[in-house]
Design brief:
The complex is a heterodimer. Chain A is α+β, with helices and mostly antiparallel strands. Helix content of chain A is 28%, strand content 25%. Chain A has 2 domains: 266 residues, Alpha-Beta Complex (Naphthalene 1,2-dioxygenase Alpha Subunit, Chain A, domain 1), CATH 3.90.380; 112 residues, Rieske [2Fe-2S] iron-sulphur domain (Rieske Iron-sulfur Protein). In chain A, strand 15 and strand 16 form a beta hairpin. Chain A starts with 12 loop residues before the first helix and ends with a helix. In chain A, 43% of the residues are buried. Chain B is mostly helical. Chain B has one domain. The radius of gyration of chain B is 14 Å and the shape is globular. Classes of the chains: A alpha+beta, B mainly alpha. The interface between A and B is large, with 39 and 38 residues. Strand 12 of chain A pairs antiparallel with strand 1 of chain B.
Chain lengths: 402, 112
């Protein structure tokens, strides 16, 4: 059968005109004062992805996450009742950090300092010589943090009254639930630190303009003669979140033999798990503010860019899998698919730091985004709207107090 | 000297000590740990044996692999990384290696 593929048509400026065309101010990409506003207006008020339910398989399973933007250490625990809860990793006696292990399984959490002991639901269950205190045990539970789960992904919110996670995700919630990540039982992970602003880092992964220059060898079928920059076929805007539907060059030369073998094995596994036919297999989800997930069932990866300071961030990339390695071939495929993704992300990291050095010099008043960098524009506008709303809120609060 | 790998993989024996990385992070490191000529020799020996090696190992559950088979598994997993150097990066591999150094592999199902 000789099917005719129509030539690639990029998304037109008309479709995204509502997001404007003005240059973007440069200082939000390096200014510590703007970062401080973002921390309060965006990160402390948004649902932030921090883990996956497969990390908490049993009652008492826990993970510890250091959340720099909140200056907090957080303990995420599956309780005896099966519910997932999150707490500040802080003994309510005098503030000592309870748990130093990154992950584990315990039926209780005891502070090493004076042996106050907490249950998996955060309640204080025992404390030596407690009669000497002037407080009730029920008032000494670990301070809770809001936690939500969608598609197996664990999110935290530090907001005072966070809206329900599914409301926050809007129409993307159901689409996420249909993806393999919702059924993942394990993952491969690699992590990087980067001397770059979180938005500058994140933006690299939501524009394809750079692909042919930065990934000339690893880019594979991402570009082609009728789409030399590998632009997406569609952009979607969902409140502060966004999606792109990825284009691929069907006429690209076949990849090397180990790649064919790995993709073949991954496709076999995906078919066996019933996840091969996915409506969103070509979609790349960008959840506000700092989370990505690629819908592909073969290389199903998430990428979180955690802000550390105005010019420092940490990226965490995970390839999610269903089931442990069931054979040598599957083990090989997973190692290869992780290594190919890591190669590409390594190339990105280098050039992002180079961009930060230029921006941090203060030489530029503005940066320029073209039509096919519209997702970067959308992120900036979403962040800046939150920052402006926060500033207005602070100003009206100050007025009310005056 | 007794064989380090299962029967039938004699051409890979010279590489068995050096290239069978224990963890995924070790294997990613091995990709750039030795001179190009040594890496290329490993690649040339392993590429034609990859499918046969996986077919042999696939006959046994992973948890039941004997020591020689486990070593062959790790050797083939290192090949996954080395093949990217030779087959994808090619002449750019030397400048690519330092970019990867900051990308720390922290977990894989194979390591657990």
């Amino acid at each position: 059968m000789n099917t005719h593929t129509p030539p690639f048509q990029p998304v037109s400026q008309d479709d995204v005109a509502w997001l404007g065309t003005d240059p973007i101010p440069a200082s939000p990409y390096y200014d510590p004062a703007y970062f401080e506003l973002e921390r309060k207006a965006v990160f402390l008020r948004s649902w932030i992805q921090v883990g996956h339910v497969c990390e908490l398989p049993d009652p008492g399973s826990f993970i510890r996450r250091e959340i720099e933007f909140a200056n907090a250490s957080i303990l995420i625990v599956r309780g005896k009742d099966g519910a997932i809860r999150a707490f500040h990793n802080v003994c309510t006696h005098r503030g000592t950090q309870l748990v130093m292990a990154e992950a584990g399984r315990q039926s209780t959490f005891s502070c090493p300092y004076h042996m106050w002991t907490f249950a998996t639901d955060g309640a204080l269950v025992s404390a030596p010589d407690f009669d000497q205190f002037h407080v009730a045990k029920k008032d000494c539970a670990l301070p809770a943090v809001a936690v939500g789960v969608c598609a197996g992904l664990i999110f935290l919110s530090f907001a005072e009254r966070p809206e329900p996670l599914r409301d926050w995700l809007g129409d993307l919630a159901d689409r996420l639930e249909a993806l393999p990540v919702a059924r993942a039982t394990t993952f491969s992970e690699y992590v990087y630190e980067i001397d770059a602003n979180w938005k500058l880092t994140y933006d690299n992964f939501q524009e394809n303009y750079h692909l042919r220059f930065i990934h000339p060898r690893s880019g594979g079928a991402a570009t082609g003669p009728d789409n030399p920059f590998g632009y997406p076929v569609h952009y979607g805007f969902h409140g502060p979140h966004r999606t792109q539907t990825i284009w691929s060059n069907r006429a690209a030369p076949p990849p090397p033999a180990p790649a064919l073998l790995s993709y073949g094995k991954a496709a076999e596994a995906a078919a066996a798990h019933g996840i091969m036919v996915s409506q969103d297999a070509k979609d790349y989800f960008a959840l506000f503010p700092n989370f990505f997930l690629l819908g592909s069932p073969l290389q199903h990866f998430s990428h979180v860019v955690m802000p550390i300071s105005a010019t420092r961030s940490r990226g965490v990339i995970r390839l999610y899998w269903i089931g442990e390695d069931d054979s040598a071939s599957e083990r090989f495929a997973r190692e290869y698919l992780m290594a190919t993704a890591r190669d590409i992300h390594s190339e990105d990291r280098g050039v992002i730091e180079r961009g930060q050095r230029g921006l941090s010099s203060g030489a530029l008043q503005h940066i320029h985004l073209q039509t096919q960098e519209i997702l970067c524009r959308h992120l900036f506008r979403s962040v800046d709207a939150a920052v402006e709303a926060y500033k207005a809120e602070m100003a009206s609060g100050a007025e009310a107090r005056a | 000297m007794s064989a380090l790998l299962p029967p039938g993989f004699a051409t890979l024996e010279p590489f068995a000590m050096r290239w069978a990385g224990e963890t995924a992070a070790d294997r990613a490191h091995l990709r750039a740990a030795y001179p190009d000529a040594e890496r290329d020799a490993f690649h040339a020996a392993c590429a034609p044996r990859l499918e046969a090696g996986l077919a042999h190992l696939d006959e046994t559950p992973l948890a039941a692999l004997d020591e020689a088979q486990q070593r062959l598994m790790r050797l083939l997993l290192t090949f996954a990384h080395v093949s990217l150097a030779v087959e994808v990066q090619g002449p750019d591999e030397a400048q690519h290696a330092p970019l990867r150094a900051s990308m720390r592999i922290t977990r894989t199902p194979a390591d657990r």
